[in-house]
Amino acid sequence: MTQGKKALSAVPGEAIGTVAAQSIGEPSTQMMLRVFHSAGVSSVIQTRGLPRMIELADARKRPRSPIMHIYLEDSIKNNYEKVRSIWRKLEEVKVSNLISSYAEDFRTGVMTLTADRERLSFYELTMKNIHSSIEKVGDVEVSIEGDEIKVKTSKKAGIKAIRTKFVNVLSARVSGVHGINKAVIQQEDDGSFTIATSGSNMLELMNIEGVDKDHIYCNDPFEVARAYGIEAARNIIANEIITTINEEGLTVGFRHVALVADTMTFTGAIKSVGRHGVAGEKSSVLAKAAYEETVKHLVSASIFGESDPLNGVAENILIGKQVTVGTGYVKLMVKKEDIKKLKEK
To answer: pLDDT tens digits, residue range 123-145?
Structure first.
């Protein structure tokens, strides 16, 4: 295991798992529990502190506040107008974002939407854009009268079906990338522009011209794994853990964080460290029983006749046997001839 030019090594028999757990667990639980969120730059909110550590350890597929930092190609990153044109393509705009009010009539199956001209102008969209987006919902008739858009569904449909159709109309996407709720242009110290987003969709983002596909940062390990592979996801997990800890004014050696990230991803998939992941897949019955759901694991082992080789740390501590780490890792053997000589003396 290496970090930059400095080699990190462990002595054979060292309890690296226990040391890593203690090194990360103790400072994590001492974080400021009252701070659940910290506002990011330009209104992009990020989950930080203990809640973020729990998200990463549990390997939650839907983080509370996924974000992306998007870097642009060298030819346009200093041109604000071109950056702004890309920004317009990012933020997901739904029909509900472009109207000031709406009315539903379940007897006739007609929904009347009143467009907001200011919002249309801000996103540089037209009534035709809304019209075509609603038509994609299917099984509806759309008509425009001034600022009003009338959407008619089938009269034969029940109230529940009509209501579902109306909800689909309001949530229909007019422009932008699915999953990106907010996008903000930021200016870096060197004068170049980047884009920060609340929400993530790396695969769709990589198809947009002008985006530097090799320089997209996302705090969602699963999103990164889908776009760049498991190695990149491992790096994101390690970086997010160390960043979260450092932001609280605490320090943890990178080797401990890297060990946790490696353990969560070495099978090729991201797994949590809890009973549904790494801890729950241990070969030792007693180790699994000592963690959580004791009766469940013991009953299952009894039914299927499982055996425990007692090679790990937790199971040996449980039965009071010397653990196979540290001094317990070394076994001394003495020849019979030497014992005989000692007795003679």
So the answer is: 888 888 888 888 888 888 888 88
**Quick one: tokens of 82?**
């071109």
Residue 254 CA, chain-centre distance (Å), reads 20
Amino acid at 10: A
Of residues 212, 192, 247, 261, the one with CA closest to residue 68: 212
* 286-307 pLDDT tens trace: 888 877 778 888 898 899 998 8
Instruction: Measure the CA–CA gap between 15 and 154, rounded to whole angstroms.
Output: 68
Q: What DSSP element (H or E) covers 27?
A: helix 16-29
- Report if pTM > 0.85: no
213 contacts 229 by C-beta, under 8 angstroms: no
Helix axes 49-58, 16-29, angle to 10 degrees: 150
With 0-12 / 13-18 / 19 or more C-beta atoms within 10 angstroms meaning exposed / middle / buried, residue 70 is buried
List the domains of the chain with CATH numbers.
11-65+222-265 (1.10.1790), 67-91+179-218 (3.30.70), 93-175 (3.30.1360.140), 282-329 (1.10.150.390)
The segments of the chain whose pLDDT lies below 70 read: 1-8, 31-45, 155
Spatial distance between the Cα atoms of 245 and 31, rounded to a whole number of angstroms? 8
Q: Which residues contact 187 (CB under 8 A, 6 or more apart)?
A: 193
Rg of the chain taking only CA atoms, in angstroms: 29
Rounded CA separation 85/82 (Å): 5
